[in-house]
Design a protein that fits this description.
Length: 265
């Protein structure tokens, strides 16, 4: 029977025991995981670098109130990082992410209705854009749908295929091995449950996925670079992001946690 991408993801949420918002993975999940690895610990005081593009978008969203008073997420595909902000534009956490296998800023036409087996490697992109995100339909699903039409969501890292080594990809310092998914954004379980869930379980939010092949203003029509405050180079107004010359450092966040067996996306 044909299983479109959205249906397959919903089925995954139920079959692998992903509980409702505020819940935890089932106790049998870790035992069933075909891939096991020690959870990385965040180094004391170690920061997570943020690109200039992340700073510019955070500046713009804050100054223009583009998120409409909702919490928001900025996803930097080039550095494979996710940054979560609350409704007051305060940075709440950041973590590495796994993204679509193929580089590109658009989704293939009709991809949300296609079987996973029919999606070619070059079509497995994480699309760039501004998306109104919210949780899925099923009572046992805690998938944060980024773009329901193209079946792109943010969820806990999946480890059903040990050959993909998704846990280790999250742990390496380079973003070059973080391209592995069909297009969804996989983040560490601890980060998802401790940062993403508390932020979005009672509210929709806006997800900004930065482009990797186009300019920011080509993807975000209302984007305007914001002037930095004189004498305070690199200050990003009200977000908590600060910059020192060419590199920005963000607060460290646990990048691992109890990574468990969840899905095949």
């Amino acid at each position: 029977m044909r299983k479109p991408l959205r249906a397959a993801l919903t089925a995954w949420a139920v079959s692998f025991g992903v509980l409702a918002v505020g819940g935890a993975p089932t106790s049998t999940a870790a035992a069933e995981s075909p891939e096991s690895a020690p959870a990385p610990q965040a180094a004391e005081g170690r920061g997570v670098p943020a690109s200039e593009a992340v700073i510019q978008v955070a500046d713009w969203v804050t100054a223009s109130r583009d998120s409409g008073g909702l919490p928001f997420v900025i996803i930097d595909k080039v550095s494979a990082q996710v940054f979560v902000f609350d409704a007051d534009a305060q940075l709440k956490g950041s973590a590495p992410a796994l993204l679509g296998l193929a580089r590109g800023d658009d989704s293939a036409p009709g991809i949300g209705e296609r079987e996973l087996s029919k999606i070619t490697p070059e079509e497995r992109t994480t699309p760039a854009g501004r998306f109104l995100a919210g949780y899925g339909e099923g009572p046992d699903s805690d998938i944060l749908w980024v773009d329901y039409e193209t079946a792109v969501s943010m969820h806990q890292v999946v480890t059903t295929n040990p050959k993909e080594q998704r846990l280790r990809r999250l742990q390496t310092p380079s973003p070059n091995d973080n391209r592995i998914t069909f297009g969804c954004i996989n983040v560490p379980i601890a980060f998802y449950q401790e940062v993403v869930l508390p932020m979005f379980k009672a509210s929709k939010g806006v997800v900004y996925i930065l482009p990797e092949t186009r300019a920011l203003d080509e993807v975000f029509a209302d984007f305007r670079p914001q002037a930095r405050l004189a004498g305070v180079a690199g200050l990003v107004v009200a977000t908590g992001l600060t910059s020192d010359a060419s590199e920005t450092t963000l607060p460290a966040v646990v990048a691992g946690g109890d990574l468990e067996h969840l899905d095949a996306r």
